[in-house]
Design brief:
It is a single chain. By secondary structure, this protein is mostly beta strands. Helix content is 14%, strand content 45%. The protein contains five helices and 20 strands. The protein has an 18-stranded mixed sheet that branches. A two-stranded antiparallel sheet has the order 2-3. Strand 18, helix 4 and strand 19 form a beta-alpha-beta unit. The radius of gyration is 24 Å and the shape is globular.
Length: 428
């Protein structure tokens, strides 16, 4: 059965990675002479359409999609939030930037102010060349759309005369999409790009003058007379490139595709999305400690039932079990008062994303505990959005059940500590 997760990172191109880089050789006086490895960063200097990173830089993509999925007479509408975080771990003159990180999918009902719920999370590590080429090892599903965009080898807006790029300049590059059926299937396509010049565009980070270009491609994969999956349709995108940062600033996409699985079931996907990009550095240990101390000072002295602690993912504010009715997700009156104060503090921090996470102790049914942890996290996230007017695009929730204890479940005191909901101000 095909599992669909469209355009999580419609950024890069992919090439195969062998166990060792291939070097060209020439024969001189009976022996092989190695040619020096080309410095791909030197080739990129001075060009507009090239990716730029330093070690420790983090690329964030937030992609919001409105999706309509039709299967036979049934139709489903949903809002999907893809959040991608890739940290630059190293730079290699031959391979490019080594990026490692997570690809997260979160879903909610369309036209709803409710928070997003996490449904999938993948990890990946790969090299990205400044031109957009990908160097990847093994069978990785994410990023599932590859080679979009890939830039011209010879022309660029920063170059002169015939090598320059005026409005209307076009170039073509191959791309591919990785799809999940019974196995991973690679669907190749050819992308046509057209440069549209400079244009002001507004994004979450403000207004900026960017280089605009468009991309479009058709999908036509599989044989109707043979067994196996088939894919056909078209994709169009508008890109705004931040030359100073060396990353996209904003993008829009329309995805109209029909996918037929191995059993012959056809699913039609109509998707419109908007994507926001930024490059930043993770909050360091000193920054985390300072934030935690400020939250402690403003919360714990007035409400000692709250607990602020440092985690691997960021600073967490822990709400105790007694903030809820027994075996219920209903918030008590003291809980609502505390959440209102927490919400006002959240507005004063620099955190771009807040994750609300529910936890239980290990007693009772595992499935019930998981569902209760999710319901409580969802209720807290909804309260922050509805009653405190926080941006729903910056808040998501999930539940861990009893999987992430902070104390021993063998004692009553430990179980009490484990029954909690945490509001995590994510570092990245």
């Amino acid at each position: 059965m095909y599992k669909f997760a469209v355009s999580v990172l419609a950024l890069f191109a992919i090439t195969a990675l062998s166990s060792a880089p291939t070097r060209a050789v020439t024969r001189t006086a009976g022996r092989a002479e190695k040619k020096p490895t080309v410095d791909i960063f030197a080739e990129a200097r001075g060009k507009v359409f090239r990716w730029q990173f330093k070690d420790g830089d983090i690329l964030e993509l937030k992609k919001f999609s409105e999706q309509v999925i039709k299967s036979g007479k049934k139709s489903e509408q949903r809002s999907v939030f893809h959040r991608v975080l890739l940290e630059t771990k190293a730079t290699d003159p031959a391979k490019g930037y080594l990026l490692e990180g997570t690809f997260t999918s979160l879903i909610k009902n369309s036209d709803s102010k409710a928070p997003y719920s996490e449904t999938e999370r993948f990890t990946a590590g790969f090299y990205l060349k400044p031109s957009g080429l990908f160097v990847v090892e093994g069978e990785q599903y994410m990023p599932n759309i590859r080679s979009v965009p890939t830039f011209s080898d010879t022309r660029d807006p920063a170059l002169k005369e015939e090598a320059g790029m005026e409005q209307g300049t076009t170039w073509e590059k191959p791309g591919e999409e990785i799809m999940k059926f019974t196995n991973l299937v690679t669907v190749p396509f050819n992308v046509r790009y057209e440069y549209r010049g400079l244009e002001n565009v507004k994004s979450e980070e403000g207004e900026k003058n960017c280089h605009k270009f468009i991309s479009n491609y058709e999908l036509n994969f599989g044989d109707s007379d043979a067994a196996g999956p088939r894919v056909f349709g078209y994709v169009t995108s508008i890109w705004f490139w931040d030359a100073q940062q060396g990353i996209p600033y904003y993008a829009q996409e329309e995805y109209n595709v029909i996918i037929v699985n191995e059993q012959g079931l056809a699913n039609e996907f109509k998707i419109k999305s908007r994507s926001y990009y930024r490059k930043f550095r993770a909050r360091n240990d000193a920054g985390k400690v300072a934030l935690a101390e400020r939250l402690k000072e403003n919360l714990e002295k007035d409400d000692p039932q709250l607990n602020v602690r440092l985690t691997d993912n960021g600073v967490a504010i822990s709400l105790p079990d007694l903030f809820f009715d027994t075996n219920s997700a209903k918030l008590s009156k003291p809980a609502k008062q505390s959440l209102e104060k927490i919400a006002q503090l959240l507005k004063t921090t620099d955190s771009k994303h807040v994750r609300v996470r529910g936890h239980t102790d290990s007693t009772g049914d595992e499935t019930y505990n998981q569902q209760l942890s999710e319901k409580r996290a969802e209720r807290v996230a909804e309260f922050l959005i509805d009653s405190a007017d926080l941006n729903p695009d910056g808040i998501s929730f999930d539940g861990k059940g009893a999987k992430d204890p902070v104390a021993e479940n063998s004692t009553a005191e430990g179980r009490t500590k484990n029954r909690r909901v945490e509001i995590i101000l994510l570092d990245r």
